[in-house]
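Internal ticket #5521
Category: modeling
Description: The requester needs a full-assembly model to guide mutagenesis choices. All entity lines are attached below as received. Residue total reported by intake: 1475.
Assigned to: D.W.
Attached entities:
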Amino acid sequence: MAFLARGRVAWSARAGAVSLASFTALASACYISNEGKPPPLDAFYFPTAMVVSPGRTALYVANSDFDIQYNGGTVLALDLRAIRQPLGKLLAGLTAGLGTAACSTVDVAGGWGPLRPNPEPLLNPGPCSPIPIRGFVDGAAVIGAFASGAVLASSPTEARARLFVTVRGDPSVTFFDVPDDRDLAAIASPCGGDVCLACGQQSDTERCDAAHRVGDSQRTSQRGLGLPPEPVGIAVSDDGVSLVVAQQTEAAVSLVVNPFPQTPAVEFILSNLPPGPTEVASVPTPRLVREASATDTPVAYDPGFLVTFSAAGEVDLVRAQPDDGASPPRPFLTRAQVVGIVTNAGGDDSRGVVVDASQRRACEQACASADLDCLADCTAIPLGLFIANRAPASLITGQLQTTLVRTGDRVTSAYDTMSVFEQVALTQGPSKVVLGEIIDTEGKRQPRVFVTSFDSRTVFGLDPRTGRIDVTIHTGRGPQTLAFDVGDDGDGLHAYLYVGHFTDSYVGVVDLDARNFKTFGSMFATLGTPVAPRDSK
Amino acid sequence: MRRALALLAGSSFALGAAGCQEQATEVPTRSLERSGQSAFMCLGPPSGAGATPALPLEDCAGVTANSTTNFASGPHLYALVTQLTRGEVAVIDLSASKVVDQNPSTPGASFLPIGAEPVDLVATPGSTAAFVSVAELGHAGIFALPSAQVRPCSGCAAPRLSSWPACSLPVAPGRMVLVADAPNEAGEVRATCDGAYESAPAAGPRGDLGAEGLGRQKLVVALPDLGAVAVIDAQALLDREAGSFEPCAVERFVPLQGDVPASEPEPSVTGPACVATTTLAPASGSFVPRPSGLAFADGHLYVGDLGAPVVHDLAMATPCAPTELDPLRATSLEDPVRVVKTSRVAVTQSMTSKLERFLYAIDVEDGSTMVFDVTPGAPRTPLQRKSPDLNPFTPRDRLKFSSPPRDLLMLQRDLPIANPVTGVAPSAVLCDPEPANSSELGAAYRTDTSNYESGAGPTKLRGTFGFIALMTGQLVVIDIDDLDAPCRVPFVRSKTYGCEVDSSDPLASSGEVSCNVVMPHAPRGANYFISSENDGNHEAGVQALPTLINTKDGALLEVGGARPRMVATLPEKLPDVDRLRTSAGEPEGVKQRADRFGLVVGGARIALKPDGTIGLPEFDTEKQALVMNHEDPRAQVVDQLWQATFEGGIPGFSGKLAKLDLVSDRAPGIYDANSQFCAAGVRSEQALREELAAQGLSAAVIDARAPRQADFVEIASEIPGQNDPHWDVVGGTCTYQQCKVMFGTPDVPTAGRDLRVIEAYSDHLTTEPRDANAPSNELTHCCFPSFVSFRVRLGGQWAVLGGRSGFLHHVVTDPETGVCRPSCDPALARLNGRAFEMPNGTTAVAEGDPRGFVNPMFRFAVVSGTSPTQRGFQFGFTTQNAFPALSIGLGDQDNPTEVNPQSLSLVPTTGELAVPDGSLQGFVLVSTDTLAVSRQIF
């Protein structure tokens, strides 16, 4: 362990240009230590994952400590309601045509004074100097190095929420009990505030305890499993119970079961997959299945997850099966379908993946709970499928069709069939794919699929209705992770896109309100002070 | 460890140092990025840029960098190419094969800025101007690019967004085409659709489109969000002030019809013991139209639709009077209720030799291409292939490839030969294979069968052809109306070769072994479909004759005697395929020569005897045999290993886990929705009983065969481990040792693991023990308490599996009952993966005998030996010479995956096909003469 610490320092001193790939080998080194320099708890440092809470009160940011300058990464919980105050003010000034004069209208709390015109517009595009985040961080914890992904799970039956972060350095899935803000009038907090996180932090170091590192101990697993190396992508089922984690170097995905409020555990590892599992997306469960489960005619359907691969031209559909009826039940994963990436010349380097259920959801919401025929009809609406692929750079479009299996007059089960059939060209380095919204010129919320192009400093927004890119956002270096904040705080609808910039360690804020002629699709604010990688300063 | 790291670092340095000594690799600078659409202009010599005339495209024919006579002083051909990320239009001097830098004073190549999210680009035929539609949110519109401003000029400012006249649109525009409002009989034109005809309406300083002589040119623009197309006067837009962005003046606004009336479904095919084909009618009702691709020909504008299942047909004798006609119905036989959405469309500009006109349309979500006959009076639904049963791998009403299509293009070309007497070279002359017509001009187009290097052949394109650019970077050639097709047939026609007739009259043809080597609206083959000393071995066959092994020990089994034997099933009337030629190149006389009917094995063609066995003396021992199908060469989809295994398994269940439920209130069986048992081809005992009854067999025979030949489940799971907590839970119901004895292991299973499939459904199989002495359901449940892995095996039959094709079958889910049954659809009849044995002593088995096996690629029969066939006996062979579709790869060797074609257009003066690439290939040009990439500019 001591050797690794020394090696880390030695490497840091000689590090060349920082790239995600260059750290892959180092990342598998497993260690947790309080030796060395503690990471800052009021700054971003190679952010890799962000999550906005359902009620938009918190922005969780996982920082990866990618050059191992510190003795761990961090997860920060930022007060999003507070952040929106200066953002709204700044945007109002910009849309009013004040230009950089709008910067001085924003006086950042904490004695930082007003913003100034941006001295580094190439490093962090935007009109003004960065907004320091110190005053907005309401919760922080230290985790292992090389955080990769994050997902928030909410209990469907009680007011509980957990944040799960994949950490390659441990390796673990580190989890946090966080406030459930789905009901803003009654935020249920496990940690004493509306914005906070709890992972058994040690009081002196703020480091999460071992009990919050899923996979760290094999004792909690019914099968005695630990988490394999290199956890990267992660997704959670609708019920918050099943999480699937891509194990990048193991040709495997893991099943983590999260039985609120008990401790989550690794319950199964599905191996012999193609090399390079990368990202995971959850397949929304048809409402028909949920409603029918309460009747005497249940519909058999298990939670599904899509897995992409960085070294195979396919996308896999795996299912989490609860093993009901066995004694004792031991959940597992099966590989239900494999679909080749037929839209791309290579197709063998897929990254982000997302499933769009918005149209089916809208249909289902119009059905009464007991109206199973209505809900069955809604399953005919396919789910949209979007995959970032680098061979060549493109955003692939497909569908998931749900088939209801009928035996006689009764629906007995359902399954999904995946297909990919379209793609749009992107610039180099497509990475994350996220569903979001913009506000159109008429003030209506419209869905968009956003994809980052890490290498070419661009975020693209695709209209899933037309299949065409109509938003092109030029960012700073290394746009890595995205989070959306669309809603109305009583002062009118806003649409902000937070872009986590890996390379220079800050979060850019993009205006996605097309009514704002001057700012739409551009970074208008910077959260956190950008810090260039040490050897590229 | 530190030392190891130091050594590693040192070796890395050494490698780096060695690299420095090598010659540096020149990395080409790529200036094009995410190219989209292209259009072409012919402009005067570059030296006079800014003041040189716009010229008709044909004036640029033959001007290349290699043409020393007129390269410097002659006109140059330019391609304008949209750049999607930069919101610009790049200009490429095609005569010089280089990208034009609009502002050499700045680093990198500068282009023409036209606003974000460019959608489409068109140029006038006389090169006066180009027009670009852009879809930037809140700034949608159309920019006009006068040709005088598309090239840099000395002293001119670099072009800016405000350099162009433009107009705004309320919504994002889609595709555009230019259609001329023709002059009246007096040669007068009207400045607006509602204006009066006058002799010469005034034009602005940026160019006079009227001078191109077509009349008043109109931009016809799709407006997807409004479900309409708009007609905008191109000259009026060009005449606007530079930098203007006032709303476009729409002269005609045509809301497209979204009401699709109900139509009759395809007639249902019914039959005994099978599932009738669907009676569902195509999707109908009210849809919100979303116009997509546009194509114009013969006064008709065809509009693809991403919202309604139609291709709109607008009569547009003049763009000022558009009238929507009965649309083409975008339907799918495979899934009639699906709302088929079409993106790009292409239409033949001229009639074919049969006076037909065709439209191709991309079915987006199916990743396929529909073909419509748009000849007046033709049906308004997609064309269907004749004899779809011969190649069930391709939908009968579509063209489908391994990758979805990106764009389409129709090419009509000819390579006329001059009449030696008159010197006249008439066009559209059909190749004539009739030996009696050897002096006719059509005979001059015949294949030279002495060397297969000239005349009618795969790479010679005369007639009408389709090109489909696939997303994966291939350009596939489609036969539509090949003028040489009459000569691409066997010397002697036979129905066995897919010919319409059996004929004894020899032809002076290419001698290929199928009458469907060239088939309208089908992929064109890259080779002669023939096994010839002169042209190589391209006829489908096998690499070696089939062998029989016992998979349990890998032993090779002798042919005949105690062992089963594979024989070819031949037609009762064999065709003459004698390839011996006279010195004049004509076939010899025709006679029945059954011994010449053969099979290509490796590099040789060997004969088959009428009894289906190998009949050549060089084989001193008996061999297994089969025969290939040649009716449609495209059915030979891939070279692959085939294995026919007695009581072999149905693939697709590996990795699946099903709930073994034998003791609940459900019917005993295995349950798993993801296994999709019908789609996998499972046949239950009940299904088999129905099939045997339909064959007229007696109840006694059925009772004897059905239980034995029904599929069965083999449990492949281990029982829980000896220390598993399960044994504590079950108490004394069963024990580890008891279960181990009763069921064995997956590697050494007992018959207790076999469960006969009584009935099959998509999500479950009801079962009962196959072995009379099998354990009870209760005991089986106790030993396998949870989900199990499993195999499904064929009972008493041979499972025929292709290494790539898998297990072919035509089992579907009966929509009425949910059970798995064969489809009645005759088009699927050759999708078979089950071969029954014929009694020992059976002699010749004729083609078409229901006891024989046939799939799309080959056919055979298995005759039992004198000893019972054992589970695991396996015939094996590998097919060769699969049909190679003629295609052109657009990628390069250095970056094979970095290709992403975006559109496809014809370069009018060079005959090349232009493919802007969304990845790193820039602008790719393909020669229609050589059918290879001719140039690549980036």
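Resolution: model delivered.
Comment from assignee: The radius of gyration of chain A is 22 Å.
Ticket closed.
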